[in-house]
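Researcher: Next entry in the queue.
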Amino acid sequence: MTTETAQDTQALTDGFHLIIDSLKLNDINTIYGVPGIPITDLGRMAQAEGMRVLSFRHEQNAGFAAAIAGFLTKKPGVCLTVSAPGFLNGLTALAHATTNCFPMILISGSSEREIVDLQQGDYEEMDQLAIAKPLCKAAYRILHAEDIGIGIARAIRAAVSGRPGGVYLDIPAKLIGQVMDAEAGAKSLVKVIDPAPVQIPGPDAVARAINVLKGAKRPLIILGKGAAYAQADEDIRTLVEKSGIPYLPMSMAKGLLPDNHPQSAGAARSLALKESDVVVMIGARLNWLLSHGKGKSWGTSPKKFIQIDIEPKEMDSNVEIAAPLVGDIGSCVSALIDAMGDNWSAPSKEWTDAIKDKVETNVARMAPKLMNNNVPMDYHGALGALRTIIKERPDAILVNEGANTLDFTRSIIDMYKPRKRLDVGTWGVMGIGMGQAIAAAVETGHPVLAIEGDSAFGFSGMEVETICRYNLPICVVVFNNNGIYRGTDVNPTGGADVAPTVFVKGSRYDQMMAAFGGVGVNVTSPDELARAVNEAMDSGKPTLVNAVIDPESGTESGRIGNLNPQSVVSKK
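Model: Structure for this entry, 572 residues:
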């Protein structure tokens, strides 16, 4: 007769389940990643526990998906990768998330510390924590199963508190197999309470901002993607409409108020920047996208800036900020509304009429270009067709990347609801398209239209298989002009190699989608493009439309040719 010991009947858990339970406890139920040693079983078990685990063809694309999931949900998007090369592939997306202030957690398997530290040549040996630290907001390593709960809690809080950003979480292979008492493991889990607490601006700062605004003759509000992330949509609209001030949305802030709103200065950007005298920055930064707040883009009119940002170090980063408002956007905007009172004076009619007149003039000048049905298509005709589709389907998510494709789409396609326009962000990263499209469909359930340059699509195009595998309602439109900027460059030596910017002529990207069971369509006119995209959006089927664009219609470096200087060396 044998005696059953306490150890035999003790319920146990392990690192795999503690990681899963910690994420679920904090309402994180989706993982984006690529399976492989040592995290394959973690993905399998997460799916078995009811989490949604989406497997990509490349870690960078999974990372871009996690980053934009963070932007859309205000919860950290999670990307799970293997060690070393997989970690490095995900690191670009982690740095991208940090630069753009998107909450994201990159979880990567790693080699054991004792082997890494002695550089003994383990499988995919790399000191991943040290590499990640300079490129993210915080980086942590968990070595013991009993610390998994607190480690994940720290990662979540770091990702979403203050200015959001990317966090790296290092998971050595030995950790996930560690076993401990299940009851003790459950007690070690941490539910993060108030991970992103409000930060109310000081009363003196609010009063200072109001005084500066009262002295303005030509005020302007600039809305950045931080304003969209804040989800303080009603307060932002109230501030804009109560103040009567014209507003200029940055690309991912389009739709916070409809682009056809009477106070929108989007079609009068140059005039608004040059002639304004007081500029209110809401969730926007004076970086290269706004010419650093100085130079000819801003004209000669003296400027005073009011800036709302949760990060104090952002103030005075390029120019003097006359009235810094440090706090979360919702609290700061609400405080400004209260301080304005009931008798706020709108800007002069001279200023608002000047903006309206410029908007009307520019819109009227653009209209005929957008109505052409040229074959082959140019950017204006193609985007004119897609512009109408977005207007008729305001709940659809628009993903956009490229050079000319990005620039023209930003200025042509209007948005009508917040967080419906997703693009390359602060770094201008190529390759975000398919990852962002997949996450947008997964996180929102809405149909997605991804407008891609043929060069940009090449960075993540294999993820069309992922789109088909999960049967996502995504329509990808590839603007195919046979190359980068334009497909007409030639090799100056006359050699056999094509020019560096030229692709295979007549490529049929639509056949890629068809190869995986989706719908592929080749179109050559705006009318054909409109029919194909409408059918795709109606059906919800994974679709890729190969839109043949005139190779001559592009321009060098989009609209930032000054960042790609020509050689100053002359040939003798």
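Model: The radius of gyration is 26 Å.
Researcher: Noted, moving on.
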